[in-house]
Amino acid sequence: MKSWTKEERYRVLKSAEEIRELHERTILSDYRQSYHIQSVTGLLNDPNGFVFHDGVWHLFYQWCPWGAVHGLKYWYHTVSKDLVTWQNKGVCICPDTFYDNKGAYSGSALPTPDSVYLYYTGNHRDEDWTRKPYTCLVDLKDGGKAVKLPPLFGMNEDYTEHQRDPKIIHDEKSGKYYIILGAQTKDKKGCVIIYSSDSPTENWRFEGQLKVPGFEDFGDMWECPSIETISGYDVLIFCPQHIRLAGRGGSVHHSGYLLGHMDWESLTFTPDNTSFHVLDFGFDSYAAECAANPNDRTKATLVAWMGLPDASYPTDEEDWSGCLTLPRELRVRDRRLIQQPLDSLRALRGEKLDLEATNVLPRVCELELIGRGGDLTLRLFAAEDGSGGLVVAYDDAAKEITVDRSGMKQRFNTELGEQRTRPLPKGLFHLRFFIDRSSIEIFVNDGDAVFSSRIFPTEGESRLFISGDASAHLWRLNRAVEDDFAV
Fold first, then answer.
1. DSSP 71-105
2. Where does 9-145 show beta strands of DSSP type E?
3. 46 is catalytic
4. pTM for the whole thing?
5. In this predicted structure, what is the pLDDT of residue 274?
6. Which of 30, 46, 263, 396 is catalytic?
């Protein structure tokens, strides 16, 4: 694997021509996705600024243009009218000021009548590489011009340098605006800090640290925090780092949530119970970003990075890495979040295949199974003799489902574990698989659980075997993203 110098990673992109040849090589990869947002070149990680404005969904992602490496980050812009088909718009935020000289880091968005405000962390480093984060603001005009406004505030000296990922929240009850930031205390504990203002663009003041009873010592940093109101419930979503959780193998970076009640006056989020719920049970999901649904306040729409910090992937050798999950609808059912694929995804369905005539699994497809009870095992991308592949197994006696990718020929991040298990107290009755050229997303029981993972099938890994009592339906899926070279 290539070794990158600091100068190479933090090189400033001055012209699209500097990466045109890299893009032309990148789009030849066998693992380029067909209906997932992916990096135009280089590395994609966190989704940012997910918002609906004037009939268009805007979604940005962290982008390092030079290769599969974390370095100087830009905000890359994509748009959609239906959350299914996406168009590349190019770079929106460049790290070109004193305040963001080493990267425009993650953040959120607020729609206004004539523009969208984008809130992000400016990653400033001094000559001795000392970090000083700033919370910055961009006014994205309806004409497409991005205007940087003065930073809202700088680093809070009562915490470490790890202060980032501003989430803008408007409290309708008080009329106030709040920005919550992921942060780290001086004794290296993860937390959220809060600022408030009567205006979205100025006069921000520090209010204090969010109190979350029972979670005072839960990882050493909380990234990408968000507080959403869904179906009358408050949901605190965040990514605790450097902590081991049961059932998560060797992973130390997680994405999850607490259901409870937020009191803005006392800055207290009171969880309903002491359980931190994982958002996604797959191998590759982090940095979830939510947008409110403009027409239905009972739900939100979530998208995440289908990847992990400090992890590597087979396409790193091709100088590109990263994609986003499909957008999912979030609702509350039985006091838990459920995630459901969008109904509009059905428009991607093409030819329906006869599973009795063939067991060849297309590289881009949707597979749906309706269980009739009992054990069920699927082996996807197996060899012709039924060996290997990705195994999805439901044990009816134990009432749990397990996903195991250790049978794939291209194994990666094995130290993080190759099996993930989710209890299903009500049994298994429905599975829906969305398979793209280098990913799989498995929705269980109409949203009770989801497993999102990167997979990289090789020649000969192309068969599907199903054991158990279930009806199955398989469709090819049409393309929904294009590899447009927009910079």
1. -S-EEEEEEESSSSSBEEEEEEE---SGGGTT-EE
2. 42-53, 56-64, 74-80, 87-93, 104-111, 115-125, 131-141
3. yes
4. 0.97
5. 83
6. 46
